[in-house]
């Protein structure tokens, strides 16, 4: 796997993907940083509304060379006003901003440049699919060095650090906020 953005495709997550997603969420890296239950009930509760189009966020399966290898979530920050207000306590966020979350579910791909490649490919897809999105703003727990380094390698710049509620209660609230602007032209 070369890491080239052209080798990545993304398809909407549906219920048929829930068993695979559950296995990914149970891997040590995903379990540590996503801190998400992987029971069928939890997957239905947390991913079912998005799969049905009842939630404004979008969940995608990242596919590399024909094989599903990860998940990417995308959402307009304005669709989550409480979260947006919390984020704005740390950094200025324009109305046209979106955010993403991501994870590789295949442990053998970790540390090989595939995370940054997946993120970069998804960013390009976002620019094409959502012309109203002016930038991507992504907060990451400061302790999750691999995650914020992957964003930097995918063209994001760290623009702020501050205290935000962590997904995993064992984490310190310090987050780094990274941003990537839509390219001009």
From TrEMBL:
- Keyword Transferase: yes or no? yes
Molecular function terms from GO:
transferase activity
The alphabetized UniProt keywords are:
Transferase
Q: Where is this region: Disordered?
A: 165-185
Origin, by domain of life? Bacteria
Q: Where is the composition biased (Basic residues)?
A: 176-185
What this protein is called in its record is: GCN5-related N-acetyltransferase
